[in-house]
Amino acid sequence: MSNPLAPGSLEGRRVLVTGSSRGIGADTVRYFAEAGARVVINFRNKEARAVKLADSIREAGGTAITVGADLTDPASVAAMFDTVEDEFGGLDILVLNASGGMESGMAADYAMQLNRDAQVDVLTSALPLLAPGSRIVFVTSHQAHFIRTTPTMPEYEPVALSKRAGEDALRALIPSLTEKGIEFVVVSGDMIEGTITATLLERANPGAISARKDAAGKLYNVSEFAAEVASAAVDPVPESHTRYVGDTSDFVPVDDESN
Ligand SMILES: NC(=O)c1ccc[n+]([C@@H]2O[C@H](COP(=O)([O-])OP(=O)(O)OC[C@H]3O[C@@H](n4cnc5c(N)ncnc54)[C@H](OP(=O)(O)O)[C@@H]3O)[C@@H](O)[C@H]2O)c1
C-alpha cells in the first residue's frame, strides 16, 4: 500500500500514535513520518520494535521519538505527555490506536480500563498540548462500533463492549473539543487480515474471518487500514464524526448518532 499522504504535506506537524510499535499503529506512524511529520511512537512492551521503527524513520530523514507508557497507568500517561511537551512543544494530531483486552492474566475489568478509561485519560491529558486546528482520531472495529445492534464472536464481546464504551465516552467530549477548535473522528473498520486479533478469533471460531471476507467482499490488510487511519487525520471530518472503512451492510446501524 502506498502512502496516502503527500510527501511534505505534514511538514512541521507533530503526531502521537498510541500503540505504534507494531501492527496498524506502526504503519500509521510511518505514513505520518514519510509525509514530514515529527512523530511520537508510543509502546507498552515492545521497546525494541519501537526503537527499530524510529531508527528507520530517522535513516530516511524523518524525526521520531519513542516513549514507553502503559496507558492504563495515569502517571505513565502524564510522563509521556511531559516528554512530548519537552521534545516537540505540543501536538497537532493524536491517534488513539492502542487497544487490548484479550490478553490472558489481566484483571476482569482490564478491557474497560484500557479501551474506555485510558482513552479518556489520554485525550484529557493531551488537551493542554492540542491547539485549535488539531485533530484526534479514535480507531475502532465495526464489531465494536455496532456491538449494541449487531452481535459479535463471544471471545471478542468484552473488547467490543469496552471499545464502544470508550467511543461513547470520547464522543461525549465532542462539544467541549469543538469549543476548543479540536476536531474528533472515529475510524471504524472490519476485521483486519494478518493481525493477531483476527488470527486469535479465527482460531477460536474457525472460518469466521473467511466468512467476514465473503460477506464484505474484501477485508483490509494492516497497511491498507493504516492508510485509512492516516487519511482520517487530514481529510474533512464526516458529519457523523465516523469514517467507515469497507462494507458495513451486515451491521445494523446504530439509530442515534452519535453513530
Ligand atoms: N485487528 C483487527 O482486526 C482490527 C480491526 C478493526 C480495528 N482495529 C483497531 O485497530 C487498532 C490497532 O489494532 P491492532 O490489531 O494493530 O492492535 P495490536 O496488534 O493488538 O496492537 C495493540 C497496540 O496497542 C498497544 N497497547 C496494548 N495495551 C497497551 C497499554 N496498556 N498501554 C499502551 N499501549 C498498549 C500495544 O503495545 P505493545 O506491543 O508495546 O504492548 C500495541 O502496539 C485498535 O484500536 C483496534 O481496535 C483492529
From TrEMBL:
It comes from the Bacteria. The keyword Oxidoreductase applies. One of its GO terms (molecular function) is oxidoreductase activity. The keyword Oxidoreductase applies. Keywords: Oxidoreductase. Belongs to the short-chain dehydrogenases/reductases (SDR) family. PANTHER family: 5-KETO-D-GLUCONATE 5-REDUCTASE (PTHR43669), ALCOHOL DEHYDROGENASE, PUTATIVE (AFU_ORTHOLOGUE AFUA_3G03445)-RELATED (PTHR43669:SF3). This is SDR family NAD(P)-dependent oxidoreductase. It comes from Leifsonia tongyongensis.
